[in-house]
Design a protein that fits this description.
With 190 residues, the protein is mainly beta. Helices cover 13% and strands 58% of the residues. Strands 1, 2, 3, 4, 5, 6, 7, 8, 9, 10 and 11 form an eleven-stranded antiparallel β-sheet that branches.
Length: 190
Amino acid sequence: MSKKTITQVLMVILIAIISLLFYLKYFNKNQQSLIIEKLGTSKNTSSNYIDNISYTSLDAKGNEYQITATQAEIDMDNPNVMFLENIIAYIFIKDSDTIKITSDFGKYNSENYDTIFSKNVIIVYPGHKITGEYFDFSFLSNLGTISTDVIYIADDTKLFADRVEMNIKTKDTKIFMNDNTKKVLVVGTK
């Protein structure tokens, strides 16, 4: 092969590698869109407030996480973290049921989608309702733990517990008491 042909082949390979790296860096990440209806600056210059915020996140498997709040406060020291009020969130797991989560307050990380819901937390999916005061949820690992005054209602059963751990994708649920000497209270509703 001539020197010119070898140079051309090396240039094509180099362009292909650069194109692949560019695609992986800028286009193959989890997609995320932010819709902001109104942006306002608070009186405190160390934070910003956003009214009527909505985030939609997609993972590589096609699962979707939507979260909306009437107000978000962004701390200028960590702009990836927002403190939310009046939250409604939906989790759409591919080939599974939709899960709805509501709470009065929350903390959302826009970088990794981890969310902490607090005060009057309600989780609803077909045939099940879980209430409590604190729900720590990771969208990327599909795991959540709800705690403090937990009530789990399914079909004709009501359970009172300290903590419920669930895999959002498989709906596998573990119900616990923090004190091993106490037992989960199970009550029939019919």
